[in-house]
């Protein structure tokens, strides 16, 4: 199974993102837009995991969650990887106070025996992808400030998702949700 651990964002915040980026959707017809019900903050991508390893992965995820405290986050702004001048991915950033989501990602790499990511975690919601790098800098600047719900929200659980890939895009299935406890901060 193709698996990843993610933080889910409250619906009211997702709805504000959906409404705020509507002008971009109209102008970026060549983008492959993701659907709101798939938006999440990937904390750790595990890749293909054999069935016989899933139970151990769930146990490792639960152990990391028990040792971590919930955190408060908020929506930041619209950006792109690798840049707004050569966008391959358009995203909305998520605040990561004291790099706690990064610490969770590193701990999940350690306990799952899966390699750590090559780049530091940049928490975000993926809005769209481009086959050919797109210059979105001018359009994004024209649309700023984005009317996002910037009120704080809790990240108090991690969700283990299974990714089903198809020609119509990805579909994510929740396998397990684990609550962050009041243990020590990673």
- List unreliable stretches of 5+ residues: none
CATH topology, what is it called? Cyclic Phosphodiesterase, Chain: A
Q: Helix amount, in percent?
A: 25-40%
Termini gap:
27 Å
* Assembly category: single chain
| Beta-strand content | 35-45%
CATH class: Alpha Beta
The CATH homologous superfamily corresponds to Cyclic phosphodiesterase
Order of helices and strands: EHHEEHEEEHEHEEE
Kindly report the spatial arrangement of strands forming the biggest sheet.
3-1-9-10
- What is the helix tally? 5
Rounded to an integer, what's the Rg over CA atoms?
17 Å
Identify the overall geometry. Answer: globular
Tell me which CATH architecture applies here: Alpha-Beta Complex
Into how many domains do the coordinates divide?
1
Query: Which structural class should the secondary elements be placed in?
Result: alpha+beta
Mean pLDDT: 93
In total, the number of strands is: 10
Biggest beta sheet attributes: 4 strands, antiparallel
List keywords for this structure.
186 residues; Cyclic Phosphodiesterase, Chain: A; 10 strands; 28% helix; alpha+beta; four-stranded antiparallel beta sheet; single chain
């Amino acid at each position: 199974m193709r698996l990843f651990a993610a933080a889910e964002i409250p619906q009211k915040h997702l709805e504000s993102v959906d409404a705020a980026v509507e002008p971009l959707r109209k102008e970026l017809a060549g983008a492959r837009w993701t659907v709101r019900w798939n938006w999440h903050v990937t904390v750790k991508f595990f890749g293909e995991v054999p069935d016989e390893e899933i139970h151990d992965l769930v146990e490792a995820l639960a152990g990391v969650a028990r040792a971590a405290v919930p955190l408060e986050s908020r929506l930041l702004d619209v950006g792109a990887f690798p840049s707004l001048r050569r966008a391959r991915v358009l995203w909305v950033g998520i605040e990561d106070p004291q790099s706690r989501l990064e610490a969770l990602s590193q701990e999940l790499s350690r306990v799952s025996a899966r390699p750590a990511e090559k780049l530091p975690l940049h928490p975000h919601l993926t809005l769209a992808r481009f086959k050919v790098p797109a210059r979105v800098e001018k359009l994004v600047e024209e649309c700023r400030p984005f009317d996002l719900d910037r009120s704080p929200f809790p990240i108090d659980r991690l969700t283990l998702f299974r990714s089903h890939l198809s020609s119509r895009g990805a579909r994510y299935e929740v396998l397990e949700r684990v609550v962050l406890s009041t243990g020590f901060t990673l």
